[in-house]
């Protein structure tokens, strides 16, 4: 009962934070405003979030770390650990849950929100390490932590590349095709229309570009 109440409070705070940020602009939102909109005190707010940016971003990432861990656990037993983890991460990062256009536009255009968004990747490590240990009992706890930390670092780098693209990429890049093959390859930059070959290169990884 206590945990359900805490979760409900967290959800109310992050929903209020995002709504107010969209309505007013994040710079015009105070912690006190978010707390009042959620029906709690500023002191209670500080028990859940360290800043307004953290609360706003939390509304977008929405328990991403536990969703990734659950997706790893849900993969069939015959799926290799590496494929289970890769599939779970790609599924959660390319699903619709984190891609509300208005919210993402807010995050990608505000440096403080971008930094907070990137910082959320550190939260992946703990739940994912537990999921790895449960799925592969032969993997020792320190090894599971190292593997999970490596995944979290890879996710951060991928998000940094998306938020600060090099070349002429024009949106969120989502690999398609056989996951074990394409997930290990970087997607090439979008070629300029005048230089794009008429016949696709079969050796280049296939990508979809989603508008931010």
Automatic annotation (TrEMBL):
The keyword Chloroplast does not apply. The keyword Acyltransferase does not apply. Residues 166-212 are annotated as: Disordered. Residues 30-49 bind DNA. Pfam families: TetR_N. Keywords: DNA-binding, Transcription, Transcription regulation. Residues 7-67 form the HTH tetR-type domain. InterPro entries: Homeodomain-like_sf (IPR009057), HTH-type_TetR-like_transc_reg (IPR050109), HTH_TetR (IPR001647). This is TetR/AcrR family transcriptional regulator.
């Amino acid at each position: 009962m206590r945990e359900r109440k805490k979760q409900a409070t967290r959800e109310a705070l992050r929903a209020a934070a995002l709504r107010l940020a969209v309505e007013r602009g994040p710079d015009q939102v105070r912690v006190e405003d978010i707390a009042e909109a959620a029906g709690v005190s500023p002191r209670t707010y500080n028990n859940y979030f360290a800043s307004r940016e953290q609360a706003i971003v939390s509304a977008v990432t929405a328990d991403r770390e536990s969703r990734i861990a659950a997706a790893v656990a849900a993969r069939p037993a015959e799926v290799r650990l590496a494929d289970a983890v890769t599939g779970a991460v790609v599924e959660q990062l390319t699903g619709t849950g984190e891609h509300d256009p208005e919210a993402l536009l807010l995050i990608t255009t505000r440096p403080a929100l971008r930094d907070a968004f990137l910082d959320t990747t550190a939260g992946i490590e703990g739940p994912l390490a537990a999921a790895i240990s449960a799925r592969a009992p032969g993997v020792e706890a320190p090894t599971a932590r190292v593997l999970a930390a490596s995944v979290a670092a890879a996710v951060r780098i991928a998000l940094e590349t998306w938020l600060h693209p090099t070349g002429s990429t024009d949106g969120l890049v989502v690999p398609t095709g056989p996951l074990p093959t394409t997930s290990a390859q970087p997607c090439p930059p979008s070629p300029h229309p005048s230089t794009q070959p008429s016949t696709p290169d079969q050796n280049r990884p296939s990508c979809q570009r989603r508008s931010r």
